[in-house]
Amino acid sequence: MPTRKKPAKKPAKPASPKGPGPKGIATRLRVLKAARQVFTTASFQAAGIRAIAEKAGVPHPLVIHYFKSKEALFEEVAMEIQNEILEGHPEFFSRLQTMGADKRKAVYLEGILRQGLRRPDAYRVMLLNAVEMVDPDTPLPGVDRMARVHEKVLSLVADHILEQAPAQETAMFMLVFMLVAVHFIGGRAFHQKTLGVDDKDYENWVKNTLAGLFIPVLDVLSKGKAAVPAEYMARWPGTPVHPPERSASAAKKQQEAPLPRGEITKKRILYAARRVFTTRPYDSATIRQIGQAGKFDFSRIHHFFPTKAALFEAVIQDAFETFVETIESWQQGVKGLPPEEVFIHYLQQGLAYCFENREMVGTLVINIAHYDSHRHVSGFTLMTRVHSNLLKMVEQSVPPGIPAEEVSRWLYTIVMMGYTLAGAPAYPARIMGLDPDSGAYKKKVFEILCFVFLPSLRSRL
């Protein structure tokens, strides 16, 4: 019987090069694009791999296949955004050096604003994540990259715009300028709603605000001058003024007339909710977490607040009522004082209050970047009204002689900086190299805000 010939072996396929093929590269890029869309609308904590996969139109295990973890994916998005921010900076700063000193400052401010409005992703990511840092020693993924961008831009400003300025004061200016830009560009939806203006008017408002606030301090820095007057620094921290009803005798009366049991439970829920909403934005905070923070069964919350939205609104309303009482007490004794004295008085009292009530202020700050996604939630609408009404109250105490529009822009910005530096201190404290709970950090915040905002006040007097 004839033997069968063994079939010839097929030639071995050449080994494919390492890494994904064209299809894999396209999928990876699609995931990266989807991740950028998610990370610019939700913070790192709130964003989920499933949401990214759904937006990319791929199974969620495929996201992990290409990027290993959410942290690695966020880092890649942050690196892409960082490169976009820095790619045009060397050429931009070189062009600035060909201009006169006065024109250079105005063009710098306008250039940063124009770039931010055209490419707001970096500012949104910074606002979403910087305000959620709790411990400066354990930053969220990507935060160190944001800090390195800040250091790079600070170096360019020092070398090309403020060559004669003291380094410490240049750093103070840049910290506030960066935070203001991050707020007004990254939190645009919230601020535009609060101001009640359309797109074009908002962009003009921001442009005029940056020029009015920062050109005077740039003038001071470019002349090599620095330092906040010693008499102002000696007055920190001062004595916080509290509403009369918060006095010791009032507190004693309250103890003598105990609240009904239901009211005590409700206050415990509100206190626990404030703690959670300070460290987690609305969309990632849960009723279960609030129960854990208050050490009670989370199901009891629904008896007083049927939904998370109702509880969030109650937290904002409670914060507003407390703040109104306090601001009214600050207004005593300021009538007839010079504008600088009024400013120092309000700055002392405002910062002291924000540091004492960090959880309440932090609830507002941490949710500003989320306004666009949750404007239908009544608590977010209330946030814009609260901020607007508080500013109107303070405006009434400003001495006459300064145009109302300039007063409004100036107050709006300094109040927002007070909220941010006191209510979400971990990121700025990391930039400063200070403990956010320390007296040194609080004193430095007072010094920075005095230094940055006094020149613009003096230029209007």
TrEMBL record:
Coiled coil: none annotated. Residues 48-67, 286-305 bind DNA. Keywords: DNA-binding, Transcription, Transcription regulation. Residues 1-24, 238-257 are annotated as: Disordered. Residues 25-85, 263-323 form the HTH tetR-type domain. InterPro entries: Homeodomain-like_sf, HTH-type_TetR-like_transc_reg, HTH_TetR. One of its GO terms (molecular function) is transcription cis-regulatory region binding. It holds the Pfam family TetR_N. This is Transcriptional regulator, TetR family. It comes from Desulfosudis oleivorans (strain DSM 6200 / JCM 39069 / Hxd3) (Desulfococcus oleovorans).
